[in-house]
Structures are given as C-alpha cells and as structure tokens.
Amino acid sequence: MLSSTRGEMKNKLTLELAQIAALITSDGHLQIKEWRYLTSFYSKDLDEINRVKKLFKKVFDVEGRIYEDRSPGKKVITLNLRYKLFFISKSTALFLKRVGVPKGNKTNTPFQVPGWIINGSNEIKSAYLRSLFDCEGSIFFTKQYKNYVRWRISLTFCKNKDLLDDGLRFLSQIRSLLNNFYIKASPIRYWNLNIRKDGSQSVEMRFEIEKSSFGNFYKYIGFNTPNKQIKLLSALAGERP
C-alpha cells in the first residue's frame, strides 16, 4: 500500500502540479481542519481563475466553484471585485499537504520550497517559479538621473516576525532556483509592517531582478499573466514607458 501511494505521488509530480503548488502557496489557501478540507484560490482576474480551475480539473479531476468577493461597505464594485475559487475535496487537500503545500495562514506557518521542486527538472522548477511570480511578483520601472529608466522584477512575501528566519530561507531557495537559469537576484531586504490585531508583527521580505537578467527570465520563466508579460517584452524591446 505504501509503495503504491508513493508511486501515485510520483506520477502526479508534473508541471501542472508545480504550478498548483506555487499558486496555493502564494494567492491560495489550504484548509485542513476537523471535517473541513478546502483548497481555495483568489484573484481579480477571471481569466486566471478559469485557468486555475482547468488545472485542478486536469490534475485532480475535481470541479471548482467560482464566487464573487466584493469589498464590504462599497456600492461600486468593479475596481474592488475579486473572485474566489473553491475546491471541496478531502483527497485533493491531503495530497497537496503531502507534496509540501503549506496549510493554514501562511504568514504564521513555517514552510519551504518542496523538495521535489528543488530536486526536479528545470521544467518543474520553471513552472513553479512562473506561477509564483504571476501571483507575488511585479515588474516595474523607475525614472533615474537624466530620465534613465530602470526596470526591475520583484518578488515579495510577508511573514510573522517570529518566523523571519523561515521566510528568509524560503526566499533564498527561490533565489537559488533562479540561479539555475542564470538569473541574478539582489540580496533579500526586509522591514517591519504594522502591528496586527492579534498583537503580532509581520515583516515584508523582498528581492529584485535587474534588467540585465530579463532576457534569461523571459527565456526560461516568463509570466502567464498577460499584462506582466507585455511589460517584460516592452522592457526587452527598449521601449520607453
């Protein structure tokens, strides 16, 4: 029974699962508590919601339910509208936990990049990184001296201050994965955020990728998110914002 379970897991360690693992680690939530086994994903982009829905159908053969999530107390909804995608499946939730997807509040939960990602093929690593940057990454420019335009890609995560070392290890693993593709990332910077309602304090951690590595980022990673990919192409083409 144990060997068949391991075989089942190995067969599912695919590019699609790598994407799912990154999506739930960033903009998703894995809830395993008492009788409740819920996997959810949140986005303002309905196309992204439908893409994730199809991924889960392909990998786990489960149907997701899409709900609108509107900001409370506001009548105009368009700008604040986001979508919730729910999968109610015990087997799916338990499988994701077994392959290293963190459950519960990720700010207060220690986790690392799953070993099968770190030791996987470059295709597996690329799929994981792409989805991670889709959710938690941004591409932007700042105008410097004499109107010089400086482009950067950043990746940002928040962590409970008590778990700072854990968060730094996670981002260090991401930097190491990027290095596999000759993408250089800056050292990790972090700063304190406001005190939360429960009295704890969060820390925001971030590193950046300079334009000199954009070519390799485009070649090996890229974005699934169209507006970010368009910005990346514009930066590579030398277009002025």
Overall mean confidence score, pLDDT: 90
Task: Report low-confidence residues grouped into runs of 5 or more.
Answer: 1-7
- Cα-atom radius of gyration: 19 Å
Helix content: 40-55%
| Total DSSP E strands | 8
Structure overview:
This protein has 241 residues and is an alpha+beta fold. It folds into two domains: 2-104, Homing endonucleases (Endonuclease I-creI, Roll); 127-237, Endonuclease I-creI (Roll), CATH 3.10.28. It contains nine helices and eight strands. It has helices at residues 2-12, 15-27, 46-60, 90-98, 115-118, 122-136, 164-179, 214-220, 226-237; strands spanning 28-33, 36-43, 65-69, 82-88, 137-143, 149-160, 189-195, 201-210. A four-stranded antiparallel sheet has the order 1-2-4-3. The radius of gyration is 19 Å and the shape is globular. The relative contact order is 0.13.
In short:
The strands form two sheets. A four-stranded antiparallel sheet has the order 1-2-4-3. A four-stranded antiparallel sheet has the order 5-6-8-7.
Please outline the helices and strands.
Layout lengths: L1 H11 L2 H13 E6 L2 E8 L2 H15 L4 E5 L12 E7 L1 H9 L16 H4 L3 H15 E7 L5 E12 L3 H16 L9 E7 L5 E10 L3 H7 L5 H12 L4
Antiparallel strand pairs: 1-2, 2-4, 3-4, 5-6, 6-8, 7-8
State the main characteristics:
single chain, 241 residues, Endonuclease I-creI, globular, disordered N terminus
